[in-house]
Amino acid sequence: xxxxxxxxxxxxxxxxxxxxxxxxxxxxxxxxxxxxxxxxxxxxxxxxxxxxxxxxxxxxxxxxxxxxxxxxxxxxxxxxxxxxxxxxxxxxxxxxxxxxxxxxxxxxxxxxxxxxxxxxxxxxxxxxxxxxxxxxxxxxxxxxxxxxxxxxxxxxxxxxxxxxxxxxxxxxxxxxxxxxxxxxxxxxxxxxxxxxxxxxxxxxxxxxxxxxxxxxxxxxxxxxxxxxxxxxxxxxxxxxxxxxxxxxxxxxxxxxxxxxxxxxxxxxxxxxxxxxxxxxxxxxxxxxxxxxxxxxxxxxxxxxxxxxxxxxxxxxxxxxxxxxxxxxxxxxxxxxxxxxxxxxxxxxxxxxxxxxxxxxxxxxxxxxxxxxxxxxxxxxxxxxxxxxxxxxxxxxxxxxxxxxxxxxxxxxxxxxxxxxxxxxxxxxxxxxxxxxxxxxxxxxxxxxxxxxxxxxxxxxxxxxxxxxxxxxxxxxxxxxxxxxxxxxxxxxxxxxxxxxxxxxxxxxxxxxxxxxxxxxxxxxxxxxxxxxxxxxxxxxxxxxxxxxxxxxxxxxxxxxxxxxxxxxxxxxxxxx
Length: 576
Fold this sequence. Notes:
- The chain is mainly β.
- The strands form 10 sheets. Strands 1, 2, 3, 4, 5, 6, 7 and 8 form an 8-stranded mixed beta sheet that branches. The chain has a 6-stranded antiparallel beta sheet with strand order 11-12-13-14-15-16, with no helix packed on it.
- A hairpin with a 2-residue loop joins strand 22 and strand 23.
- The longest helix has 12 residues, at 136-147.
- The protein is globular and about 100 Å long.
- 42% of the residues are buried.
């Protein structure tokens, strides 16, 4: 069972976390996939933050000021720039002629380095009121300059300009917000999600069988009723999957060998804590919570410790990886899960109910941006941080993919192909495939692998990189497990390259109807469990949040309170 990698946007989390890491094998190297641009050879590179920039156009020195975004759709940027054309008069004085250029460009976004490179810049018009030709000659000269320059801009600059333009659409998706089962623990604990009723399968070439539809490794021998769960540096045992789980006194002698083999193949997570210093069962035995439906685990280090948030009536829990706030005016607890707010009067017992971010107490909007609690501001409707999250969520990561000697794709299907209709569309998808494969009509197939679309006229035919995809794919609704594929785009193609990109929705984010970025659709999707297990995207189980940092802006983070979740392996890792 080969499983996709963790999304690249995951930010490691905190002292109370046990991070479940997927194997790094099978990950395509960006250098092997993303192609160099077919633009001018060895173009000069303009420094990203050097503004204004000066160009010599005949007898005129043209100063071009920082661009302002007018629109940014996919990889097409519409912009305007103010400029000053300086010339020397008859008496030797310098005369300034101010004006504006408008233009378009194709963008390549490098999110890790926070840079945007502009290609195929076209200056479409000019307006210089004091010049007889309204700046036409300057426009021609500037166009020639841009043809020989690779223009690089800070992503944050364009992002701020895009926000100011007001061109980002905030229409949202009707996601589901039914509360998951919320478990609160004051001591180390591990949440082990199983995708539905446990499916027991033999482990090949061994005397063991395991629970297949979970990322955790739960095994027993064919002749024994005792289950063994690998956690930290050893094994816990129980006669029931629901527990209680205790340190195994005498695990089977060959169980470690089988476990290492499965882990090395990427077919199980040993929950060993990762990192160089791993937790040990000799020091602490966590409580195990096995759940077969949506659940979230909140772990406190001891009794909850609440500290006041300056300028508000709110209190912030500072001894947990979760985001827990108390409103002292009502004594209600608020918990942020996957970008959604849930409220209860009783932290330990519940019940929990969903509350829209537009209905939060007014003090939530008064949380100081410099406070520890400010990480939740991206999930509070109407705050600057929530608006920044919307902007960041709209900007694609892009790449130029070579059509020759580029990435390849071969289907990996568990058994005979089984097709299912995608509700609300004329499309069908393969339910027993590791990667999304969609059938359009009788004989056209599209597959999405590592952020690149492929196409073929039969499942067993040669798959090639797609240069376009049917519009119907973007009608796939949130109720479908393939909804995340609607956030991967083909922007155009030449004879040599295809221009592709994805927005963070490919990694699980969604804008809800309140205009807030949340994680996951809230739908319960059915995974494939056959001879192998293909996890379906899940919304809960990792405390996935939009996180605002005053220094670095909005990102998505996972504050895992000693949890592991199958969903973290359901998202396909993009190669760019």
